[in-house]
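User: Run a structure prediction on this.
Assistant: Running it now.
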Amino acid sequence: MASKSRSKTPASPTAAKRGAAKTWAAKTSSSKTSPSKTSPRQTAKPAAKPSARKMLASTGRAAPAPKRRRQQVAISHLREEDFKTDGLRAYAAYRDLGIADATHGLARAHVIRLLPPCNPHEVSKLHTHAVEFQMVYVLKGWVKSYLEGVGETLMKQGSSWTQPPKIKHMILDYSDDVELLEVILPANFKTKELTA
């Protein structure tokens, strides 16, 4: 009958190296004074990746805007009594379209009637707006304006233009019947008058 005893085969050089590594790991882990036990197979965890917000901050870019409140429907019908002269410019009447309230300040939209006759000494004041976005569309009449980097431009019915943030600009002249649609983000912003 064959013997049931097993004979051990000699370990390979690779297995011998693994065994030595385990022995060394056991010795070093037992010599530590730390109360937590570390098994030889455990390795240090890699450092957590920085969040997207931290990465943007480290590059000088703005972090994503917080989530905004749900927007509402804004409906506005033409009524002459809705044109108010209590807006940014004394020579203009503004009809608010309700966008600022409906978007919780995200944007503003209004129809502007520049009051006749045009007084160049009153309207021709160089200024800037601290906005993220601004566009104007001519509904009726015409307006002549100055835009930094563009110069004097005549905008007629159907014309539109954007005004990048803090661009220097001013109105030079306009027709007696001019009406403009203006859309601005955000709804509230600062205007700075400049000396010529």
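Residues 81-193 form a domain with the Jelly Rolls fold (CATH 2.60.120.10).
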